[in-house]
TrEMBL record:
Gene from which the chain derives: cmk
HAMAP family xrefs: Cytidyl_kinase_type1 (MF_00238)
Domain Cytidylate kinase: 7-204
Species: Falsiroseomonas tokyonensis
Coiled coil ranges: none
GO MF annotation terms: kinase activity
Binding site for ATP: 11-19
Keyword set includes Cytoplasm: yes
Name the UniProt record assigns to this protein: Cytidylate kinase
Primary localization: cytoplasm
């Protein structure tokens, strides 16, 4: 039933989509792919070289040179990586370089894939699509707690301001803007704990699979 099944899980940062996608993948015995790591890794490669993440030529070159090892780096999270990832994600040549990689992964293995345009661009034909959201205030609080645990002491209001700025950039970009697919099931996790969110997501996925 799940052979080569692709489940698309989209949404903004810190909405809980990554945690949900990983748990759904384990529950359904499917591979999991965090597609956001591709853009973070491209951004990090640029930062390593002192290049500007908004430079389309440099960014496209790093996207084409991306390796699987780049996805395992430990420095792909945090405000600097967030900004770089959001910048390279607006560049059409970067998205084109990474699109075939994502599609090949899903077509060969089946997968639960999370990102921002899985259901709208990468796999618009996916039979199961979720769009996971939460209020900006709650998402900022979650990210702030994560950062505190990693020893990154930034003020909560700064975390929220940066998150709102990234939301605006991701939603306004001309290429693959952040938005729900027309046939996506919507899940707001603002008032849900991890278990309640997973139960709701699993119920939505099973309903779509059976439908």
């Amino acid at each position: 039933m799940t052979r080569r099944l692709v489940i698309a899980v989209d949404g903004p940062a810190a909405a809980g989509k990554g945690t949900l996608a990983r748990r759904l993948a384990a529950e359904l015995a499917l591979p999991y792919l965090d597609t956001g790591l591709l853009y973070r890794a491209v951004g990090r490669r640029l930062l390593d070289r002192g290049a500007d993440p908004t430079d389309p030529v440099a960014a496209a070159a790093e996207a084409c040179a991306l390796t699987h090892e780049d996805l395992g780096r430990g420095d792909l999270r945090g405000p600097e990586a967030d900004r770089a990832a959001s910048a390279v994600a607006t560049i059409p040549a970067v998205r084109a370089a990474l699109l075939d990689w994502q599609r090949d992964f899903g077509q060969r293995h089946g997968a639960v894939m999370d990102g921002r345009d899985i259901g709208t661009v990468v796999f618009p034909e996916a039979p199961v699509k979720l769009f996971v959201s939460a209020s900006p205030e709650e998402r900022a609080r979650r990210r702030w707690v994560e950062m505190q645990a990693r020893g990154q002491a930034l003020p909560l209001d700064q975390v929220e301001a940066e998150m709102r700025a990234r939301d605006a950039q991701d939603s306004a970009r001309s290429v693959a803007p952040l938005k729900p697919a027309e046939d996506a099931a919507l899940l707001d996790t603002t008032s849900l704990d991890a278990e309640a969110a997973f139960a709701a997501a699993l119920a939505l996925v099973r309903a779509r699979m059976q439908g």
